[in-house]
Amino acid sequence: MPESTTYSVPAIHCEHCALSIREEVSEVPGVDTIYVDLDAKTVTVAGREVSDDLVRAAIVEAGYEPA
Q1: What is the pTM for the complete model shown?
Q2: Which domains, from first to last, does the chain contain?
């Protein structure tokens, strides 16, 4: 069963931010779905055996700092 993790990303504020994050995080092995909530400023990632470190690095690569 896929597991999900939600990351707080305070700097996201627009659809361009969301697209950048989705593009980078989609490259992380095991990721099935990515949901960016602009109002809550969160990114929820679901998949199997997804590396937390790799997801955080992908968010940073997109130009944002997970809290």
Answers
A1: 0.94
A2: 3-61 (3.30.70.100)
